[in-house]
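User: Hi! I have a protein structure encoded as tokens and I'd like to know what sequence might fold into it. I'm fairly new to this, so please keep things simple.
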């Protein structure tokens, strides 16, 4: 799964990306520092893996991962090609969801492309460009579909109706993700591949002083917009997180203890992004490897098995399943089995987050 980090130039996107991935992406105080998107794989924090690793004395621990893409800063007029806009918009189309970084800190040393801090204006600038790009794309698709709809093609008629409804919604300056559709209509709209239909997490990039104060009018503006769109919201100080990401593990733990930090902002961002995409992890455990496997919520047991190997799905028979909590409480798989906590589940079982699973299959 791929998440795109977007925002205006100089809002902290590359700083955030560096902190997330430790990839050393270039970060500088001028627009369009990022030209080609930087890409990095990030592990999803999951303390359960370490516990299972100790329990099984495993040789290897493999966490779930998310791919983050640092996309260059968009500017007003991007939908018309301003500031290399068309190229950057094409990069956004390729991601599964969006992390929209919004600058909420004041710093006279860091240039703001519009001259001052105004999160509401900045969000509207980005969203408008994405909406305009979607209007152009959807208008072309409607023109192509219309002739098939007029010829009596039933599905083309359904497409034409949903796409036309979405176009009117976009023309009101509203992102497609806010459009109220039923499940069938949502499925049809997905075929339009609209940028503003993608799930979005608004990340307020704040200063260390704002962490201490607990927010201000800038962060509240971002929070209000996220709430209105039913989007995720998070506050992170990208500069601080970048500094902390360079600390050795023992020093980092000391810092967290000293300042009473339970969880770093980056961990919260990664988990929120994982949740944003509707993903969960099930676990496999043994002496060779303890591993988290990524699936969509609602996936049934054969589909979960197929993530490991297509043969597992094709030849699925049963799955031995125990919840992580039950397994840890019992002290091991055999003990959990003796306590009646291990279940045999069939093809209709919907996998839950934290299920520890052993598949039986025959190919």
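Assistant: Happy to help. Inverse folding works backwards from shape to sequence: for each of the 363 positions I chose a residue that suits the local structure. Here it is:
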């Amino acid at each position: 799964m791929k998440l795109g980090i977007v925002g205006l130039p100089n809002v902290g996107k590359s700083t955030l990306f560096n902190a997330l991935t430790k990839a050393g992406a270039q970060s500088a105080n001028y627009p369009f520092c990022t030209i080609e998107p930087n890409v990095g794989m990030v592990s999803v924090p999951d303390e359960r893996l370490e516990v299972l690793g100790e329990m099984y004395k495993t040789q290897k621990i493999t966490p779930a991962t998310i791919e983050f893409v640092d996309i260059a800063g968009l500017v007003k007029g991007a939908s018309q090609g301003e500031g290399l806009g068309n190229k950057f918009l094409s990069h956004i189309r390729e991601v599964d969801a969006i992390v929209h970084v919004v600058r909420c800190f004041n710093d006279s040393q860091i240039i703001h492309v519009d001259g001052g801090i105004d999160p509401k204006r900045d969000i509207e600038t980005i969203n408008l460009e994405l909406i305009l790009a979607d209007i152009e794309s959807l208008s072309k698709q409607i023109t192509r579909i219309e002739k098939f709809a007029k010829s009596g093609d039933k599905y083309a008629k359904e497409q034409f109706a949903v796409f036309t409804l979405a176009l009117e919604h976009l023309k009101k300056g509203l992102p497609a993700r806010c459009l109220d559709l039923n499940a069938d209509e949502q499925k049809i709209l997905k075929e339009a591949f609209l940028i503003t239909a993608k799930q979005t997490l608004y990340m307020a990039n704040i200063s260390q002083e704002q962490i201490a104060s607990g927010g201000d009018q800038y962060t509240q503006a971002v929070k209000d917009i996220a709430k209105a769109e039913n989007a995720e919201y998070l506050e992170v100080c990208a500069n601080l997180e970048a500094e902390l990401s360079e600390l050795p593990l023992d020093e980092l733990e000391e810092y967290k203890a000293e300042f009473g930090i339970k969880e770093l902002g980056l961990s919260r961002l990664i988990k929120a992004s994982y949740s944003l995409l509707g993903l969960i992890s099930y676990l496999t455990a043994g002496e060779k490897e303890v591993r988290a496997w990524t699936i969509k919520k609602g996936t049934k047991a054969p589909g979960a098995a197929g993530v490991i190997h297509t043969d597992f799905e094709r030849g699925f028979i049963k799955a031995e399943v125990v919840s992580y909590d039950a397994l840890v409480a019992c002290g091991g798989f055999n003990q959990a089995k003796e306590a009646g906590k291990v279940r045999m589940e069939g093809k209709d079982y919907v996998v839950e987050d934290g299920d520890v699973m052993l598949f039986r299959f025959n190919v």
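A useful reference point when you look it over: The chain is about 45% helix and 20% strand. Feel free to ask if any position seems puzzling.
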